[in-house]
Amino acid sequence: MTTESGFRNTDEEVLKLLEECGELRRTLKTISSQLARIEARVKGAFPQAAKTLNDRRTANSALKTSTLSSEQALGKFDRIVNLASSGATSEAETYLARQASADLFAIAKEVGVTFPSSKPSVRAMRDAILGKVRESILLSRHSRRE
Fold it and tell me: What is the Cα–Cα distance from 7 to 9, expressed in whole angstroms?
């Protein structure tokens, strides 16, 4: 099994690591079921406290959703385009920086920006919206020439 030096060869090491992974998986499964059982008991013993906690979670998730309609999001985008096309790019960036992350996501969604992850960073959303602003300005300049 082991070599003369006392170390395991590669195959033995892989088998040992796989065994450890299996043990950890079983332990985590046990912990998860125990935690679910404890949570159920707490909710049964203290229904008012559980309801209050659930209400807080619901309120926090409601704050993370955008209150903008699609027309409002497009209106904000048009305002940013107008600021940037008039030469006030720093004001456009400042206006964009003041928007909440949920509103940025709504604006980005309305102008057709897609993200590789479901929860993009605020910076990624701002950069993507500014890219669409630049694209809009270039397209409007091109259409004026014709």
Answer: 7
